[in-house]
Amino acid sequence: MSAPDLPLEQATLPVATPRQARRELWRALRPERLGVGLAFAVLAATVTAGLFIPPALGRIVDVAERSGTPAELVAPLVVITVATLVQGVAGSGGWYLVVRVGEKVLAALRERVLSRALQLPQAEVERSGTGDLVSRVSNDVDQVSEALREAVPQLLWAAFTVVLTLVGLAALDWRFALAGLVSMPFYVWAARGYTVVAPPLYTAERAAEGVRSQALVETLGGVETVRAFLLGPRHLRRVGEASEMARRRRIRTADTTAWFFSRIHLGELTGTGSVLLVGALLVGDGSATLGEATAAALYFIRLYDPVGALVNLLDEAQSATASLRRLAGILQVPVEARAGGEPPVAPRLSLEGVRFGYADGPEVVHGVDLVVRPGEHVALVGSSGAGKTTLAALAAGIHEPVAGRVLLGGCPVADLDRDVLREHVALVTQEVHVFAGTLAQDLRLARPGATDEELLAALEVAGARPWVDLLPEGLSTVVGEGGHPVTAVQAQQVALARLALRDPAVAILDEATAEAGSAGARHLERSMERVLEGRTALLVAHRLTTAAAADRVVVLEHGRVVEEGAPEELAAGTGPYAELWRAWQAGR
Ligand SMILES: Nc1ncnc2c1ncn2[C@@H]1O[C@H](COP(=O)(O)OP(=O)(O)OP(=O)(O)O)[C@@H](O)[C@H]1O
């Protein structure tokens, strides 16, 4: 395997524009607008209750200054107690409501992103690498979810507090509000600089994280090949370079954040100084009491926390926005527009002049013509790398040809709705997967409504009954990862049983007999024959006994059909198949 060095800035999936991201967020928020309204109302009530506390404290100062009676303290103390209680109760209620709505919105968004991720055109995933996709559905979802849980409730609380506290200051005396506003230019200066500078930094940071994930996935996913070809140092270097880039970008964003905070502190200093100065002047000329000046200073100090939180949140919001744009980016990738098309009438599969290449790589299938007639079993044979698996994926509509057409019953597969296509054509790849869960759940993935009897019948056809009947809890046995272990042959049989349940007219099978051992392989061959009976089938035959049982054999070499015909005729001839057949016989 040649492992060309990947450029660190490789193509990744698209990132949505801020507008597209807002549209996606709004789409997820819309069904929850009642909840959002209620949460807003409760949060506003909480903040309003808090506004009563500084003037009540101011009143206490005034009473103390003129040595008033203890009875005069009762009213302000009651106000403080009630306001504190309301703040506590309504505050936690509002918080709960916001978090609840946030979770619902996040769930809706995550579901849409995941379902779109599963529909992404294979070519797009090949081009951008699975690491980027994994990083988006893990890191970026985490980032947005953290923001919705923490940042959004705080952001709302902070915004309400700032606005309503300024109203409170103005209610005491408009000059206090004016003094408080002196700090604003510093905040705006900080915030504007940050909102302009930070977004590209965060986007770049996330992109570097995506590249690092990709490098890790490639190294760990292909660990055996990496070891076998002594590619460790090269992969380590690549992971190291990607990590270094992610680290450098993280530090750059952290530096920007530190700058931002220093401007905020300048704002706090100026604002508090101005309010105290105005307070002193107003008390001096008798237009305000000492208590009112105290209340004004308390009001302004109350702003520290929310403004600080806004700063923090601006930081988190920027970061979450970058993640949201990456998630929404997945939603912007057009899924192949399949108009629906007329469902195919006959299970006839034809490939006409099909050409294909992976991502930006060279062409690996060079103009293949192939017809599988209804009910016919055609075996694809050829040496490793000839293009058999690729051709099977093209026939199943997983890849789209760059030229030529794949037709099902005369209808171009590219025009067929995916669900219609899957109903008619099923693909069983070499990498069969037994999903964690009970055996029945695993099988019902193919046909959700199937009864236990139907499941058992399908297992019977796939030749799996002998071992399934011995399972401790039969169909309810948990199989796969963390459950009852299944062998490679058993996993294949489960896949074949799923195929029988799905009951497609056309089956495309990439035979995985390589690791099965010869006894297991013979077992599977019989299972396969039974499952394929009556169906149109295209088989990637790694074992020539499978090819010998087919109606027709197509020999592929270097992405081209070099020979085709009935297996016994070809075996008796002198062409490439006869050569493969003799080598196979000799090697048995
Ligand atoms: N995901 C991929 N990305 C890039 N190139 C690929 C990919 N999969 C296969 N190829 C290349 O396409 C060509 C055909 O490969 P393919 O797997 O279809 O051959 P095959 O005949 O099925 O081989 P095998 O019998 O070993 O499975 C090979 O040159 C291979 O390196």
UniProtKB/TrEMBL annotation:
<dbReference type="GO" id="GO:0005886">
    <property type="term" value="C:plasma membrane"/>
</dbReference>
<dbReference type="Pfam" id="PF00664">
    <property type="entry name" value="ABC_membrane"/>
</dbReference>
<dbReference type="InterPro" id="IPR027417">
    <property type="entry name" value="P-loop_NTPase"/>
</dbReference>
<dbReference type="InterPro" id="IPR003439">
    <property type="entry name" value="ABC_transporter-like_ATP-bd"/>
</dbReference>
<dbReference type="InterPro" id="IPR011527">
    <property type="entry name" value="ABC1_TM_dom"/>
</dbReference>
<feature type="transmembrane region" description="Helical">
    <location>
        <begin position="34"/>
        <end position="53"/>
    </location>
</feature>
<keyword id="KW-0547">Nucleotide-binding</keyword>
<keyword id="KW-0812">Transmembrane</keyword>
<feature type="domain" description="ABC transporter">
    <location>
        <begin position="349"/>
        <end position="583"/>
    </location>
</feature>
<feature type="transmembrane region" description="Helical">
    <location>
        <begin position="73"/>
        <end position="98"/>
    </location>
</feature>
<keyword id="KW-1133">Transmembrane helix</keyword>
<dbReference type="Pfam" id="PF00005">
    <property type="entry name" value="ABC_tran"/>
</dbReference>
<keyword id="KW-0472">Membrane</keyword>
<dbReference type="InterPro" id="IPR036640">
    <property type="entry name" value="ABC1_TM_sf"/>
</dbReference>
<protein>
    <submittedName>
        <fullName>ABC transporter, transmembrane region:ABC transporter</fullName>
    </submittedName>
</protein>
<dbReference type="GO" id="GO:0005524">
    <property type="term" value="F:ATP binding"/>
</dbReference>
<feature type="domain" description="ABC transmembrane type-1">
    <location>
        <begin position="38"/>
        <end position="319"/>
    </location>
</feature>
<keyword id="KW-0813">Transport</keyword>
<dbReference type="InterPro" id="IPR039421">
    <property type="entry name" value="Type_1_exporter"/>
</dbReference>
<dbReference type="InterPro" id="IPR003593">
    <property type="entry name" value="AAA+_ATPase"/>
</dbReference>
<dbReference type="GO" id="GO:0015421">
    <property type="term" value="F:ABC-type oligopeptide transporter activity"/>
</dbReference>
<keyword id="KW-0997">Cell inner membrane</keyword>
<dbReference type="GO" id="GO:0016887">
    <property type="term" value="F:ATP hydrolysis activity"/>
</dbReference>
<keyword id="KW-0067">ATP-binding</keyword>
<keyword id="KW-1003">Cell membrane</keyword>
<feature type="transmembrane region" description="Helical">
    <location>
        <begin position="155"/>
        <end position="177"/>
    </location>
</feature>
